[in-house]
Design brief:
The protein is an alpha+beta fold. The protein has one domain. 17% of the residues lie in helices and 49% in strands. The protein contains 4 helices and 15 strands. The protein has an 8-stranded antiparallel barrel with strand order 1-3-4-7-8-11-12-15. A 5-stranded antiparallel β-sheet has the order 2-5-6-9-10, with no helix packed on it. It has a two-stranded antiparallel sheet with strand order 13-14. A hairpin with a 5-residue loop joins β5 and β6. The longest helix is centred in the N-terminal third of the chain and has 18 residues.
Amino acid sequence: MLSKGLFFLVFVSAISRASGQTGLTVGYHYGYANPREINRVLHAYNLRNETILTDKMPAIHGFKGLSVGFQVKGFRNSGMEFMWVGRSAMVSAKGSGGAGGIVQRDIKVISNSFNIGQFYTWNNNKMMWGYSFDFGMRLKGYTRKAPTAEISGTKWEDIFNVESNPLQFLLNVIPTGFTLYQQSNIGPVGIRVWYQMQGMPQTLGNLDMVLLGTSLRTGDKNYPLPLHDKFSNIGISVNILLGVRRK
């Protein structure tokens, strides 16, 4: 996904030389999401392991990440924005693992996207609002388990099975999310608040089986419905424009 985003940035850079490039933007953000089905499984994990857990697995809400993109100023007070956005969250639980040792279980969720949108400025470019259609927005989930002293070197296991699903390529070529935002600019620094809606729920693969050893799926016992979830979110970011805000 990152390599595709970089390709788009190079492409946009070439175009912007002829259309009034405003510049490269880099940023860092914090956000809040409430993936209910993921958190339902994590809650069940805590209940099942209540007698051995010393630190329970918290729900996944907060996330953070980097963004990089281009703003291309067009006519009047409008322009285009092309941005790759990375989002990740990680939670951990610890418990007794026998022989007096402490075992740690980590869960990591990733939801990156490449956003293409339009923005409008006013008040001499001090204020700006915009929207984007977000491509490649899909949930990826990983886990690892090991003694606490060895956890950092332990390999992550894919539990959502995203890469093995042949239909996942569709999520790279159709927009699966939509973002609305407002930004205040102080010189080259922009402070942005946003809401991102994920329109297409994503399968959670083997999350329940890996963590619980049993299924939480609903429906007919012979054809259970797989767990699905969304990563719609709100957040705030600080972006730095490495260019010029044209009036």
